[in-house]
Every structure is written in C-alpha cells, then in structure tokens.
Write a structure and sequence with these properties.
Elements lengths: L1 H19 L15 H22 L7
C-alpha cells in the first residue's frame, strides 16, 4: 500500500511542478483533456489520496 501511496504523491506533486514549466509526465498526458480546472482537481486528488494512504496505511507491517 505504501508504494501506491508514494507513487500517487510523487506523480501528483511532480505533475504540478512540471505543469509550471509547460511539461507533463507521459503517463499523465491525458490529465488536461477535460479542461485546466479538471486537471488541477485530478492532481490535487492524487496528492490528497496519496497522503491519506501514507498516513493511515503507512504504519502497518505485513507478516508472512
């Protein structure tokens, strides 16, 4: 769970930083297809979900 949360957080923050320089991750090139506002909502949601998953699921250790 921690890896998924880290990727969401990384891609969300990275997408915002790259957007200021008019770049975008190839994987997220579709993010502004529905408009700039929706793109920012998707980026923000990725950050919020990633942070939430890290906060609530980061302390669990898998036994096996």
């Amino acid at each position: 769970m921690g890896q998924i949360a880290s990727f969401l957080l990384l891609f969300g923050v990275g997408s915002i930083v790259l957007n200021f320089f008019n770049y975008e991750f190839i994987v997220l090139s579709w993010i502004d297809n529905w408009g700039i506002t929706v793109g920012w909502i998707i980026r923000s949601t990725m950050i919020v979900v990633g942070t939430t998953l890290l906060f609530f699921g980061g302390g669990e250790k898998e036994e096996g």
